[in-house]
Amino acid sequence: MNEDGTTKYTLTVRNQTLDISVSVARAKIQLEGYVDRIVTKVGSSSLETVNSIVLAGGGGAFLLEGLKKRIGNGHEFVQLAQSQFAIAQGYAELGIAAAKRAETATA
User: Fold this and answer.
1) Half-sphere exposure (Cβ direction) of 7: Cα atoms closer than 13 Å
2) pLDDT tens across 50-86, in order?
3) Do residues 8 and 2 make contact, with C-beta atoms less than 8 angstroms apart?
């Protein structure tokens, strides 16, 4: 935790720990702008028909705060456990399923 109460983000490279909190804060601002553009494009009336929003991928955790600010708490936000691996796991499952279909097609 930083002295001002914000979360401290660090990155360790070759045994040297770097404080990347400023970079993460800038990235969050960019993500909030991205969320604004998505909400504007989709439209508020369309979002009223959505009950749940599933966040996956490495950036899912960073989008959560911005989404809650922008569209409110009237939605259920689901963040997958180990969401940083969700997309890779999905591709792995897709590859396994495709291999099984190819195997049965040639048998």
Assistant:
1) 7
2) 888 888 777 777 788 888 888 876 788 888 777 778 8
3) yes
Sign of CA dihedral 14, 16, 22, 24: positive
DSSP structure class, residue 10: E
The pLDDT mean for the chain works out to 85
**DSSP secondary structure string for all residues of 83-95:** GGGHHHHHHHHHH
Residue 94: band (very low, low, confident or very high) from pLDDT cuts 50, 70, 90: very high
| Cα angle value 35/36/38 (rounded, 5°) | 65
Sorted by where each begins, the domain ranges of the chain are 10-106
Token code pair at residue 7: 């979360």
- For residue 45, the model assigns a pLDDT of 75
Tokens representing 71 are 């569209």
Find the largest Cα–Cα distance for the chain.
65
